[in-house]
Amino acid sequence: MAECHPVGFQWVMEAKQRGAKVIHIDPRFTRTSAVADQHVPIRVGSDIAFLGGVIRYILENEKDFREYVVAYTNAATIVRDDFVDTEDLDGLFSGYDPETASYDGESWQYAGHDQQASPDAEHEEVAGEHGGGHELGGHGATLERSSVQRDETLQHPMCVYQVLKRHYARYTPEIVEQVCGVSPEDFLAVCEAVTANSGRERTTCWVYSVGWTHHSTGVQYIRGSAIIQLLLGNMGRPGGGILALRGHASIQGSTDIPTLYNLLPGYLPMPVAGEHDSLADWIATMSSKGMKGFWTSADAYAISLLKAWYGDAAQPENDYCFDLLPKLTGDHGTYQTVMDQIDGKVEGYFLVGQNPAVGSAQAKLQRQGLASLKWLVVRDVNLIESATFWRDGPEIASGELRTEDIGTEVFFLPAATHTEKSGSFTQTQRMVQWRHKAVSPPGDAQPELDFYFHLGRRLRERLAGSTDPKDRMLLDLTWDYPVDEHGEPDPEAVLAEINGSFLTGERAGDPLPGFTSMRADGSTAGGCWIYSGIFKDGVNQAARRKPGQEQDYVAAEWGWAWPMNRRTLYNRASADPEGRPWSERKAYVWWDETLGEAGEWTGHDMPDFELTKPPSYRPEEGASGPAGLAGDDPFIMQADGKGWLYAPSGLLDGPMPAHYEPHESPVRNPLYHQQANPTRQVFRRKDNLSNPSAGELGSEVFPYVFTTYRLTEHHTAGGMSRWVPYLAELQPEMFCEVSPELARERGLENLSYATIVTARTAIEARVLVTERVTPLTVDGRVVHQIGLPYHWGVGSEAHVSGDSANDLLGLALDPNVHIQESKVGSCDIQPGRRPSGPALLRFVEEYRSRAGITVETGNTRLTPPDRGEAQRP
Question: Rounded to an integer, what distance in angstroms lies between the CA atom of residue 61 and that of residue 538?
Fold first, then answer.
């Protein structure tokens, strides 16, 4: 966090000055480690074993916050008798189909429940293709019947608490050491610190970034942390929760109002062709009859969105223009799209603030995809490698591509920087902050809003008078944003549209005060339901900057946080079931029976609960929606109002996290015969070969582990830093971090060159011999890890260039969200510079031959029975 998010890290340092303990769990000793109270080196890709060990410690030692756990989680809920755990199936949950490498989650359900027809009901043919797991991350899994069977003594053998306890029983400190390379002493110190700092008086926070997400089990990493936080009562309380640090200033915003192919604003799922033939079909995937919580108003959120986009054209008789929404036909994620480019299925591409020729996994494949297009639009502030690959990319030097054979027509359109345009940033904690233009962009550079507004205007002018039904998709859009004297649209007008407004009645034209005002009858419009309220009373709430000394520590008048300016989600959990603060020290939101007619929720933050619903409220039989939630159901977006220690639906790879080895690993899975995630998404292609893992022939050819990371001095793929001489001078060359022990083993000398090689290619880097990277003893053998920053690329325009670490990576994806496993891979390292030209291809091919690599290597998702048994503890 200190390295990649130095501005935000100031708050960690201030907390430390006030007595907070900072623990850093990371493969490398970094700038964060240097100021932490404890640094715990860990093997890359083994975090679930570590988190599982913490869960076991909590359960075995009864360190859980029992009153919170019983009242606010599904610990007491009974699971179906036919559920079978990984502990009994040697790494698989019940319902696995080896033909499709997917799960039928029927047996994972609560007792008395059947699996619902939702995007998680199928995998690769449907859900896996359009990211059903990702969609469910937004709207939650549906539960048709809101009643569940519970045992609040937590003794029933099939209650979630006991299921969880059995699942993690083998994740002992000794197993954590065997899998992660973490000593029992270091591990237990973390367990003791985390549990001692949790309870009524204290809370602990977990912070992660792409070191967790960029794995073939990335979603389950975060689930592991969520289970810990729920068991310890750290969700919905001040100083608790889980912070997902974003890689850019507004990555959070680009998922809220998304650049993701499978989501619409506010985490509404994209409709799927053949599944969602009507508006009602689509809405049914987000809410269901009898379901509790606020997702039962999904129809209001969806119809308000359609009214915002299509205005008067959206009417009840035409399903509010639902037919004009594009429909998914399969996987259109980044990596499938690149392969479709190579296979001739994609002709044109827009790159906006992205540099995949350097910054994306399997960067070589990215460049080959770009070279297969008919046209490419690049909008950036500099002439990045993704715009110049056709003349100076690595494949030109190796002879794999020739400039004269590349048919891609590249249009480079200069973009404005963040200081040259007004707009919003949505930060890690969901806070939206407005930025004001400082200077005008130079020359032809345009802000994105200006570019897309005028692109849309020109397209609509070109299509004017068309009778082709498909053109209504553009012609019926509301596109009447006010412009200034330069013809640029007003960004605050877009923010007002996102907020939404009343369309009928006495308040017609007034901004919506919040999402609870949205209606499903076409009387409201709103571009993103979770952002409704950001333009309350016609005021840009994101532009507020009341100084900290003039308000309390929650700072509710600095910017605006979705939803409804709540700074901590699910904060009803900060009070006990009776509505009283768990302690005075941690008082945050509470029930005050002296307010209003019969009492209201109040506190330091906007209560994340119905203001007048008392703690004693119990729903009537059959009640649904918000009325179906009891006065002590704090997790209001969940179908049962509880925090899920166990996920009966919504995930494609299991209801609980289990340790699997990375897609490429020189280590056998010590816990199960099943080596890697059996549902991971793989691509069997000659241009995406995988290294063999432990247990496969040839794995000894790639005995080391590498991981990628960022530096403070550079920004991601370098498009904003390698062109700045002052920053380029600070970190001028690509380098690799190796331990003194590995340096001796491979004959590497400090500041000399080394060649790192995988089945994809080989790169060169300067050698940095450092004790920041520690050899770890894992399953009885020493595992060496190599650190690789990924900011450099091969090109001729930047002040500095170098080989890209992302060239080394193959593609294997998490099945839930299609994110790549770019934080871990296996490799070899040798002293000296890599070969150049065609000799590089021969060098890599020799490695492939020695390892016996084919398109099937590493891509058999179900571990074969003849692979040999792992040493099971």
Answer: 54
Give the whole-angstrom CA distance, residue 38 versus residue 40.
6
- Rounded Cα gap, residues 245 and 242, in angstroms: 9
Cα(254)–Cα(252) distance, rounded to whole angstroms? Answer: 5
* Tokens read off for 576: 């006990």
Q: CA separation (Å) from 742 to 699, 703, 739, 746, 832?
A: 18, 11, 5, 6, 15
Gap between the Cα atoms of 351 and 369, Å rounded: 13
Distance separating alpha carbons of residues 367 and 372, to the nearest angstrom: 9
Provide the token pair at 260. Answer: 């993701």
Whether 704 contacts 742, CB under 8 Å: yes
How far is 623 from 604, CA to CA, in rounded Å?
Answer: 31
Q: Encoding tokens for residue 218?
A: 């990335």
pTM metric for this prediction: 0.95
Per-residue CA distances from 34 to 15, 570, 712 (Å): 16, 34, 15
Q: What DSSP assignment string belongs to 610-621? A: -TT--TT--PPT
What is the rounded CA–CA span in Å between residue 247 and residue 733?
A: 22
HSE-CB of 783 using CA atoms within 13 angstroms: 30
Q: Which residues contact 703 (CB under 8 A, 6 or more apart)?
A: 666, 784, 826, 828
Cross-strand pairs, 242: 206
d(CA 644, CA 629): 15
pLDDT at 135: 52
- Portion of the chain with pLDDT greater than 90, in percent: 89
**Is the separation of the CB atoms in 421 and 392 below 8 Å?**
no
* 22 or 123, greater pLDDT: 22
Token pair recorded at residue 846: 């020799």
Q: How far apart are the C-alpha atoms of 659 and 370, rounded to whole Å?
A: 36
- pLDDT score for 871: 39
Residues paired with residue 340 on neighbouring β-strands, in sequence order:
none
| pLDDT tens per residue, range 235-257 | 999 999 999 998 788 888 888 99
Which 3 state secondary structure label does DSSP give 371? coil
ω before 789 within 30° of 0 (cis)?
no
Neighbours of 196 (CB within 10 A): 12
Residue 33 burial (CB count, 10 A): 20
Dump the DSSP string for 5-26: -TTTHHHHHHHHHTT---EEE-
**φ/ψ (deg, to 5) at 244:** -95, 105
Q: Residue 154's Cα: distance from chain center in Å?
A: 32
How far apart, in Å, are the Cα atoms of 365 and each of 39, 405, 788?
36, 17, 19
What is the distance between the alpha carbons of residues 24 and 33, in angstroms, rounded to a whole number?
6
Residue 689's contacts (CB-CB under 8 Å, 6 or more residues apart) are 759, 760, 810, 848, 853, 854, 855, 857
In angstroms, how far is CA 303 from the centroid of its own chain?
Answer: 27
Q: Are 28 and 773 in contact (CB under 8 A)?
A: yes
Which position has the token pair 């650049």? 259
Average pLDDT over residues 795-812: 97
Token pair 């303990």 is found at 21
Half-sphere exposure of 680 (CA within 13 A, CB side): 32
Q: Residue 798: helix, strand or coil by DSSP?
A: coil
The per-residue pLDDT for range 726-783, each reduced to its tens digit, is: 999 999 999 999 999 999 999 999 999 999 999 999 999 999 999 999 999 999 999 9
Tokens 């990211």 — which residue?
131
| Parallel, antiparallel or unpaired: strands 524-525 and 501-502 | antiparallel
- pLDDT averaged over every residue in the chain: 94
